Amino acid sequence: MQIKDLGEFGVIDLLTRLVVDQRAGPGNGPPFSFNLTVDNGDDTAAWSVGQSAGQGQELFTTDTMVEGVHFTRETTPWRDLGWKSVAANISDVASMGGLPTYALITLGLPPETQVSDLESLYKGMMEVSNEYGLAIVGGDMVRSPVVFITVSLTGAMQGQPMVRTGARPGDLVAVTGYLGSSGGGLKLMLEEPSEKGEAADYLRTSHRRPRPAVAVGQTLVEAGIATAMDVSDGLAGDLAKLCQASGVSGKIFADRLPVHPFLSSRFPDDCVELALAGGEDYVLLFTGPPAKVNDVVSGLPGGAAVVGEIMDGEPGRVAVVDADGQELPSRDRGWDHFGPAQD
Question: How far apart are CA 16 and CA 234, in angstroms?
Answer without folding.
Answer: 22
